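Example 5.3 — DNA-binding response regulator
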Amino acid sequence: MPQKIFIVEDDDVIAKTIGNYLNRWAFTVDLVKKFDRVDEEIRAAAPDLVIMDISLPYFNGFHWLSELRKHSNVPVIFLTSSGDDMNLVMAMNLGADDFLAKPIELPVLLAKIQGMLRRTYQYQQTETNLTHGEFTLVPTDNQLRSPTEVLDITPTETKLLSLLFSANGEVVTREAMIEKLWEGDEFIDRNALAVNMNRLRKKVAPVGLAELIETVKGKGYRLASKEAGHD
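Solution (predicted structure tokens):
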């Protein structure tokens, strides 16, 4: 069954150009029709991945991403203006999984889509549950479970936690994390890892896991035991 891509882009030429290109690669493509009901249309379409512009009629892409993340962890690739680092950081903090600066190079977009779909869905099918102290990571459900609460997390956050849980307190290098998340994707911005880690810490703070995620200067990150605390 073809995988479905949902495009939220108000420039009709860009949207149709992307759509036609992806059709040739055997994807099913839906384009948003009502820009004041973006979240409703995404729910109805149930896509495997969303491509979303930041500048949109009625509400911007940040608003719709926030609404989407209330009920879905579907991968989202943001389209940004070239060199707009502030929008990139905001998008990643709100739950975007990747980004691409305009003007868009279609082969680069295709590579990002294929990589994101492969990492998200194949990964979920093969990973087993992991534990660290009182916490359990359930990759197939994208959930972090504590004795008191269950947190829904994104596929990207799941992959980061799986590395930390599997390391048993040892340092996970930045290079290993980048390879896990983006499989050596040459198009990835190196700052994206730091943004994702900051977002992860905020997400897991309510259950007390954030205080165990330690930054090891010049190396990477590790997950301390609750008894040890920070160095």
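Remark. Residues 106-126 form the longest helix (21 residues).
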